[in-house]
Amino acid sequence: MADNLPSRRIDREALDRILKRAAELQASEIDTTEALTEQDLLKLGAEVGIDGRHLRQALYEQTSSTAAERGLIARWFGPGHVNAHRVVRGDKAKIEDELTHWMAENEALTVKRRLPDRTVWERQRGLLAEMKRGFGMGGRQYVLARAADVTVIVTPLETGYCHVELAADITNLRSGAIGGTAGATGAAALVGAGLFTFVATAVVFPFSLVAVVPLAAAAAAPVIGARVQKQRGAEVQLALEQVLDRLEHGEIRPKHLSSGQPFARLAGEIRKAITDGMRR
Fold this sequence. Notes:
single chain
């Protein structure tokens, strides 16, 4: 019967729909009354001809460490966590070594916790770290150092490939934006109400319209605060993606330096930054 079917060309959009529907039909015939293990899932994928690496990639992408946040605050000010993930070539030890080097040297972060399946980084503290960020050493903005912490998860897929997820907790930035917005709104509203009352009784129209300016500022403050915070979140998201870009293209090269060399290099960069600033 299949040989008698008319030959038809299937474009990419139609192919995606067909494969999705076929997967739904296949899944409906499988008894999944109990939770599946990862090995069960891989076995199931092999039976329907899905490559194990692709199945693992889909699995880790769909079970990200940062679930989508809901609620009014998340909708207005943006999420409290942002993440980026990608499959890159290399074994786990090599990738973790490269990320350790990058986070410490190029993002001004230090290890907060080392857990069995992940490493959590936080902002480096101390005079040298503050000077490094303050002078923008290497022309960098050290965006990830603004986050409360950054989590790195490297999961092997198959020989020569790993799934890498970077997740940044930016609830500290969002809390600051909410607090600043609330303060600005309250202050502007009080000034506007007081000024409106005074001007309305003491000054004739149209000068009383001056009192509307603080009230308009109070109304605009939440919109501006939300926009600024969403921009900050987008900058952190981009910084995570840029780390993965460098990792994917082999641009991170750990250098096993002696203990004295990093400080000497930092001092040289500080002198250069000061000299460049004096010339401007």
